[in-house]
Amino acid sequence: MSRFSFIYIFLFLQTSQLLCQFSGVLRKDLTEQDGIFYNKGVKFTGEVFDLNEKGRFITLEIFKKGILHGKRINYNSRNTNKLATEKFKNGKGIFRTYYNNNKLKSYGLLIKSIKYGEWIYYDKKGIIKAKEFWSMEIPNQLEWEKYYSQEGVIETELFYKLGILSKEVYYDNEGNVIKSTKN
């Protein structure tokens, strides 16, 4: 047996053993409507786990009456060590996602599956690539977006009013404004 096959089998068995400990469902098997998660038409209560694109266990979440309520644990996809634990109460909490290299991918405030406040997005090296701000009063209302270069220098800002793009600002490689337009 090749060394690669042995490693693959080892990782598969390790993930399989961990999943056998949970009596919950996969997140992809739930349906969501207005921030409430259902399993076969019933508001879901119990453990939900998520797998990455390679089929490895990455997240365990606790739901109560269809909403995230309790601990949400992010795991290292390589060895199932904990990366972070968040606490949600009635669907409200800080939500984090991670890349396969275990670097932070995004985080921000989530209330019943709706983004609020500032959200920050990182590249695989840990450099901020974008920020956005969601209204604290109006659900799903994006107020602004900012995009950054690979060096972390601001490139673009987009501002919205009532969901419509109202202003654009573009920057050069040193962060100086080169163009600003109001729509």
Tally the helices.
1
% residues in beta strands: over 45%
Which spans have pLDDT < 50 for at least 5 consecutive residues? 3-20
Shape: flat
| Radius of gyration from CA coordinates | 20 Å
Structural class comes to mainly beta
Domains, number: 2
Biggest sheet layout: 8 strands, antiparallel
Short structural summary:
The chain has one helix spanning 3-20; strands spanning 25-26, 31-33, 36-39, 42-43, 46-51, 57-64, 67-75, 82-88, 92-98, 104-111, 114-122, 128-134, 142-148, 154-161, 164-171, 177-182. It is mostly beta strands. The longest helix has 18 residues, at 3-20.
Task: List descriptors.
183 residues, mainly beta, eight-stranded antiparallel beta sheet, five-stranded mixed beta sheet, disordered N terminus
Description:
The structure is a single chain. The chain starts with a helix and ends with a strand. The strands form three sheets. An eight-stranded antiparallel sheet has the order 9-10-11-12-13-14-15-16, with no helix packed on it. The chain has a five-stranded mixed sheet with strand order 1-5-6-7-8, with helices on one face. It has a three-stranded antiparallel sheet with strand order 2-3-4, with no helix packed on it. The protein is flat, with a radius of gyration of 20 Å. Strand 12 and strand 13 form a beta hairpin. The chain has one helix and 16 strands. It has 183 residues and is mostly beta strands.
